[in-house]
Amino acid sequence: YTDSTHQGLDEESLSQLEFYEGAMHAMDIFASANLKIHLSLFDTENDSALVSDLLRNPVLKELDFIIAAGNQAVIRKLNQFSLLNKITLLTPTLNSSDILKNNSMAWALSPSSVTQCYEAGKLCSTKFRTSNSIVVKSGVSKENDRAIAFINGWNEHSEMKCRSIDYSKGEFKFLLSSLVKGANNLLFIPSSNEDFVNSIITGLNDTTDVFRITVIGIPTWQFFGSNDPASLENLNTNLFMSSQLYYEDSSSIAFRKFFRNEYMTEPSEPAFQGFDAMMLICKSSLGESGAFKLPDQKGIYSNYRFKSSNGLNENQFIRLVRYEGYKLTEVK
């Protein structure tokens, strides 16, 4: 980086700094004579003990909103404070929903992995409604929640029911026996194990002269270093994502231009998330009871479609992207 404020920072510090810079830019855009904002900045250093010390300041009980991007231990402390003092808390921290549950003042800007899988099942039940739908379980316990969520999302919105198979019990021959000729076979593989996923993709790619196959993968697949784009395209592989970040969108271009001019570098994802968090507050409305409400909004990092569940407000937005050549393109 050529800008001194970004030099010599570790990845975590840089992420927090750019989140703040994005939020500040949104505040500068949306603040007006009718919307005055008093901003207080606190550096948590991603340390829950430091957060506990900060929260002893009685002034913080007068806050209207808390915007926080940090690890789950930090979010847990802030959630307790939000709940006790009736202060609205917004966070883009991934998988924070379990921490925020039973706090109606909390807003999870990023859907949890389980929510994403449920919404993916729901979306796929519409786009691939006549498919033979199968969830391929690896036998790893942490993946069971994802599998169950996808099945529930599909089965609650389709007459064609989705089922699961345990790949660990019969491996590829067991999977092959579940496929149907003459129909599209939709396979959801909720694994982030690159070797496991690639072994299934390789096997399935050799069967496409017999079976029609659509593979649904999770967001982490885009970061795999050894996948074969040609095989993924041949299998009509779709991934779901909770972001809607288009670098060539007019709003994104304007934000990137500002950021480059101001900080002499390209913004990373946390900068876009910080902008959206502040934008949501600035565009928020208050209900008749004075409660904070967020109508559906389009941001520059994602779209926001909140639903109250488990006592908190969680974004439900996902989209599908498909491998085409060496790129991921949006499924309309």
Quick tags:
single chain; alpha/beta; 7-stranded mixed beta sheet; 5-stranded mixed beta sheet
The count of helical stretches stands at 11
Helix/sheet category: alpha/beta
Distance between the termini: 37 Å
Strand segment count: 16
Beta-strand share of residues = 15-25%
**Average of pLDDT:** 92
What topology, given as strand order, has the largest sheet?
5-4-6-7-8-15-16
Order of helices and strands: HHEHEHEHEHEHEHEHEHHEEEEEEEE
The backbone outline, from C-alpha atoms, is elongated
Biggest sheet, open or closed, and with what strands and sense? 7 strands, mixed
Q: Mind telling me the C-alpha Rg?
A: 22 Å
Question: Which parts are unreliable, with pLDDT below 50 for 5 consecutive residues or more?
Answer: none
The portion of residues assigned to helices is 25-40%
What is the gist of this entry?
The chain contains 11 helices and 16 strands.
